[in-house]
Amino acid sequence: MPTLTIGDTAPDFQADTTDGPISFYDWAGDGWTVLFSHPRAFTPVCTTELGYMASIKGEFDKRGVKILAISTDPVEGSSEWSKDIEETQGSAVNYPIIADVDHAVAKAYGMLPADVDGDPTARTPAQNATLRNVFVVGPDRKIKLVLIYPMTTGRNFDEVLRVVDSLLLTANHQVATPAQWQPGQDVIIAGSVSNDAAKEKYPEGWDEPKPYIRIVKDPTAA
């Protein structure tokens, strides 16, 4: 089963969703996208995940990042599931859920083997256990992040948001973010930036505990 990793081109696709038909590239436009998959509708852990993502979607909106979910269930199943999500999680689903009934998206993204076929509603969540991925796709259509979770562990979308903040920062400034970084905290000058170039960008200098670690203030911090 081919897998996609960081730096690969995210496949384009056409799909029916709870918000109507989409063509992924056209729908994503020139922005960033978080694409996350689910084994089936009406699964307990995924119910909490879609609800939480709905509750923080505004934070992704502020950053110009679109949200797109995947389920193998038909549109009608995901629409009914959305009612349960709103009832139990307190947030209505406010982004499209793909109805990947022919498993085409799951296969294109390496989440299911090519030989999977048949009625998607006849497959159990356990058979679709590999549909627990998070992809962040950049404006250049390249995959910037891949996370894969087991069915029994709910995803941490605050962490996905933190990574998005790091990706946006590092895409626009030649820096990297250290362990446990949060927006506004110090960052590391990227190794691709020479000292001469760094002096032009950071004339006030930087902290250098080792020659390969050059620490500066977050260039976007107030």
Automatic annotation (TrEMBL):
Q: Which GO terms describe its cellular component?
A: cytosol
Q: Where is the Thioredoxin domain?
A: 4-169
A GO term for molecular function = peroxiredoxin activity
Give the domain of life: Bacteria
List the active-site residues. 46 (cysteine sulfenic acid (-soh) intermediate)
Q: Which Pfam families match?
A: 1-cysPrx_C, AhpC-TSA
Q: What PROSITE patterns does the record tag this protein with?
A: THIOREDOXIN_2
The GO biological-process annotations, alphabetized, read as: cell redox homeostasis
Q: Does Cell inner membrane count among this protein's keywords?
A: no
Q: Which InterPro entries match?
A: AhpC/TSA, Peroxiredoxin_AhpC-typ, Peroxiredoxin_C, PRX_1cys, Thioredoxin-like_sf, Thioredoxin_domain
User: What family is it from?
Assistant: Belongs to the peroxiredoxin family. Prx6 subfamily.
Query: What's the protein name?
Result: Peroxidase
